Amino acid sequence: MIGSKKSIARILIIGIAASAFVLVLRATVGKSSSPEKPLSTDSGITYEEDKALLPFPPNSLEVFQTNEGMRVTWPAVTSDRIGKYRIYRRAINSRDWQLIATIPIKSSSSTYSYLDRIEGSFEYAIASITIYDTEGPRGPVATPVPLSP
Question: pLDDT of 22-31, one tens digit each?
Answer without folding.
Answer: 444 444 444 4
